[in-house]
Amino acid sequence: MTTALHIDHLHKRFGSNHVLDGFSLQVEKGEVLGLLGPNGCGKSTVLHIVCQLLSYDAGQILLMGKPLSELSHGARAMVGLCTQRCALYPDLLPAENLHFFARLYGLSEKDRKQRVAELMGRFALENFARTRVGQLSGGWQQRLHLAVALIHRPALLVLDEPTAAVDVEARMDLWRLIEGLRDSGTTILLTSHHLAEAQRLCTRVALMRSGTVVAQGSVPELTARVPGQAVAKVQSQDEGAVMQRALDLGWPVRQHANQLRLLLPHPLGLREIVDALDGTQVSAVSVHPVTLEEAYLELVGDSAMMASI
Ligand SMILES: Nc1ncnc2c1ncn2[C@@H]1O[C@H](COP(=O)(O)OP(=O)(O)OP(=O)(O)O)[C@@H](O)[C@H]1O
Ligand SMILES: [Mg+2]
Fold it and tell me: CA-to-CA distance for 218 and 75, rounded, in angstroms?
């Protein structure tokens, strides 16, 4: 059995708000699956249902091959969750937090000590052994949060926007930690608004809109669905003329967040692009590879706020 999580036609309503509308997703053991989509599309709702923090109305969920509805509290121990908001005790030391959650999950005293020491070392938390958690930087709090989510050796690690609230340097550190977990075979389901993060960390990505998955695959599989081999971002006083010329050339045109993007049939140099657009007013052009951002814009649209490093 290689499937860690199997979600089939999941439905969830909050009153008249039909938040999950036939949501289906599969996470294989050992993969890092990134669930991406605009604010309010239902990502956290999926995660909370998987962690049994929320009920659902219809559909089927199998966790390690067993129906979630039959697992009751056992399921909680199979999953380690890092919520969008930090759930640590600010007045306790890092190790005290780890001990607290280890006890909550029923680890024996011997196992608890061993596991806390192991995670303090692995996440380099020993540097702050004497610092109360409330005094730690956001980045270090999030490291501890990750360690807490792993304390009971869950079969599936669930991370809800793990780097949303930290600075660039801390984000890079967290990326390295998550990459380390991925490379040692941890199965991870994560959400993010950060497309470069998803591109770097995830072995597969599911793109979500209005409560359903609209596309999924590896990053190369998703970028292959963009009808272009490269993207030219163009600034012009007369965008209409540039768009018309691009269309005459057979180059698909996109406009996202007031930025004009031309999808090139093959990678072209700046000179070739400027020559091709000759006769139109072009004030700046830059050429970019097709990334997950392009695939997201193509397949989901640009209603979401997207971050860059
Ligand atoms: N407990 C709740 N009661 C009522 N409505 C809720 C509840 N939790 C979520 N919702 C609604 O469900 C929808 C999906 O919310 P959810 O938090 O799953 O979105 P999200 O994709 O995680 O968004 P974000 O990217 O902003 O974190 C939203 O319309 C939200 O207002
Ligand atoms: Mg959310």
Answer: 28
The parent domain of residue 241 ranges over 230-289
Q: Report the nearest-CA residue for atom 10 of ligand 1.
A: 14
Buried b or exposed e, range 209-232, using 16+ CB within 10 angstroms = bebbbebbeebeebbeebebebbb
End-to-end CA distance of the chain: 37
Co-location of 22 and 94 in the same domain: yes
Ligand 1 contacts (CB < 6 A) are 14, 17, 19, 37, 39-45
- Give domain status of residue 304, yes or no: no
Same domain for 277 and 198?
A: no
Looking at the fold, whether 173 and 276 belong to one and the same domain comes out as no
Determine, yes or no, domain membership for 112: yes
pLDDT in tens, the chain (309 residues): 699 999 999 999 999 999 999 999 999 999 999 999 999 999 999 999 999 999 999 999 999 999 988 876 666 689 999 887 778 999 999 999 999 999 999 999 999 999 999 999 999 999 999 999 999 999 999 999 999 999 999 999 999 999 998 899 999 999 999 999 999 999 999 999 999 999 999 999 999 999 999 999 999 999 999 999 999 999 999 999 999 999 999 999 999 878 899 999 999 999 999 999 988 999 999 999 999 999 999 999 865 444 433
Residue owning the nearest CA to atom 24 of ligand 1: 39
Q: 196 and 251, same structural domain?
A: no
Q: Whose CA is nearest to atom 4 of ligand 1?
A: 14
User: Distance, CA 121 to ligand 1 centroid (Å)?
Assistant: 36
Query: Could you tell me the two tokens for 107?
Result: 């680890």
Indicate the top mutation candidate among 16, 25, 44, 197 to test ligand 1's pocket, ranked by most ligand atoms within 8 A of CB. 44
**Torsion angle, CA of 190/192/197/181, rounded to 10 degrees?**
-20
